[in-house]
Amino acid sequence: MGLISGLSLTFIPLLIGFILLYGTFKQVPTYESFVEGGKEGIKIAITIIPFLVGMLVAISIFRASGALDALMHWIRPFMKSIGVPAEIVPLLFIRPISGTAALGMTSDLIAVYGPDSFIGRLASVLQGSTDTTFYVLTVYFGAVGIKKMGDALKVGLLADVFGIIVSIVVVVLIFGTK
């Protein structure tokens, strides 16, 4: 067992115990608070489900219609001209839509090309430098009832674009292209 695993196995129960003891010391009804938190969590989960289903259906339609493939085919030559491997292009489009799909793509790229390859490093840095913008807007904004999300969408996508650009620059500067 590694150091981190050992620390987490020790730290997490100690943290939970400390919270319970501190709450009891402050005369907070800890069990009742826990149950109320659980009830609230279930309400939030039920509220989020319609937005999540809608987003997943939209993603499935986008992919099944061939629109994603057409978009990737259109942008692939440009990306290749600036030194970004064609294998990374699908990840650039999926990451703002679905974190799970992007993680699957990243895992596949690392399995095929290796973690120390340019593609593996770039995929890893992209995974950590961008966000699931559409997921966040759909699920979280929808759950709290925010209807006007145009500015948040623009800022989120702009942040993703900058994350992509900086990821490419940093990986090239630190590791080179091959």
Main attributes?
globular, mainly alpha, 178 residues
Walk me through the topology:
Elements: H1 3-25, H2 30-64, H3 67-81, H4 89-94, H5 99-113, H6 118-129, H7 133-143, H8 150-175
Helix pairs in contact: 2-7, 5-6, 6-8
**Count of strand segments:** 0
Q: Percent helix among the residues?
A: over 70%
Radius of gyration, in Å, reads: 21 Å
Number of helices: 8
Which structural class should the secondary elements be placed in?
A: mainly alpha
**Percent of residues in β-strands:** under 5%
Give an overview of the whole structure.
It is a single chain. With 178 residues, the protein is an all-alpha fold. 80% of the residues lie in helices and 0% in strands. It contains 8 helices and no strands. It has helices at residues 3-25, 30-64, 67-81, 89-94, 99-113, 118-129, 133-143, 150-175. Helix 6 (118-129) runs antiparallel to helix 8. The radius of gyration is 21 Å and the shape is globular. The protein starts with a helix and ends with a helix. The model has no long low-confidence stretch (mean pLDDT 85).
